[in-house]
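Go through this:
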Amino acid sequence: MLVAENTKNFPGVKNGKDYLFHAKKVLKQTQMPYSFEKEVFEKKIGNSLFHVMEARLDSMGKIILQEMISTVNNGFSLSFIISYSTEEEKNELYEVINNVKI
C-alpha cells in the first residue's frame, strides 16, 4: 500500500519517525491486536531517508508482519506499508520499493 498525506497542518510531524509515532497511536486504538517489538529505525531508499516501524498482527491464528516505511518532505508524508508472512515475501516487496523513483 502507498499512502501520501499533507502534513503541513501538523507542526509536530517533521520526519517519518514523527509520522509513525502518530500512526502507532492510531493502530493501538483499533481492535486489531497489533504488537510493536522494535523501535523505529532509519532506512535509506534511493536518495531519501525513511523511517521504518515494524508491526506484528496475530489474527485468527495467522501471523501477519508489516512494515510501515515513511518519510516527510516539503510538508507531505509518503509511506509504504508492506504486509508479509515470510522473509522471501518481504524481500520481493522491497525489490518493488527499491525500484520506485522518488
Observations:
- The longest helix spans residues 16-29.
